[in-house]
Specification:
Blueprint (H helix, E strand, L loop, with lengths): L1 H5 L4 H11 L4 H41 L25 H25 L6 H10 L4 H32 L1
Helix pairs in contact: 2-3, 2-6, 3-5, 3-6, 4-6, 5-6
Length: 169
């Protein structure tokens, strides 16, 4: 069940249901799904955080070079030559989508995004987007853990009740 919980399309809630239908104790099935899902979210957050740190340090280094702080022949790039810092014109629809996403994130924050995003996106994708956007790792991990536990519990109880009612009738 931990392996099933680690797969982004299945996640902890579906892994728990699979375990319950397969005959596992609902608590064991949910626990295994939760652990498997959270381990992959933890790895995703750590990797995304390292990637963001690398990109941000590169941007600051390139910005420092543009200001003339370095004279090395190997480091001569301008912000216009660097694809990370070059200004790219955005289409009207992309600007509109970015504004809408920003309003939604400002309204609900990390807790809302973490709790509601599993309805549309895997938790790994949600956590990567939040960390890449600059949200603190610990805050993202806390709310992703709460969301994983909440959704797995909801799915486990629903599956257990459905199977109990079906076999009682």
């Amino acid at each position: 069940m931990m392996l099933a919980g680690a797969i982004p399309a299945i996640e902890s809630d579906v892994a728990a249901v699979i375990g319950i239908v397969g005959g596992l104790n609902p608590s064991v099935a949910a626990g295994a799904g939760i652990v498997g899902n959270f381990v992959t979210v933890l790895l995703t957050v750590l990797l995304t955080s390292r990637a963001r740190t690398a990109v941000m340090s590169r941007r600051s280094r390139v910005a420092g070079l543009a200001a003339g702080s370095s004279t090395s022949l190997l480091d001569r790039t301008t912000p216009d030559e660097d694809p990370l810092t070059a200004a790219k014109p955005e289409s009207k629809s992309r600007q509109k989508g970015r504004k809408r996403l920003n309003r939604w994130f400002v309204r609900f924050g990390v807790p809302g995004a973490s709790l509601l995003a599993p309805l549309a996106l895997p938790t790994q994708v949600t956590s990567a987007i939040l960390v890449a956007g600059g949200s603190p790792r610990a805050w993202v991990l806390l709310w992703q853990a709460i969301a994983i536990i909440l959704w797995a519990t909801l799915a486990s109880v629903s599956a257990w009740l459905a199977l109990t009612v079906v076999f009682l009738i």
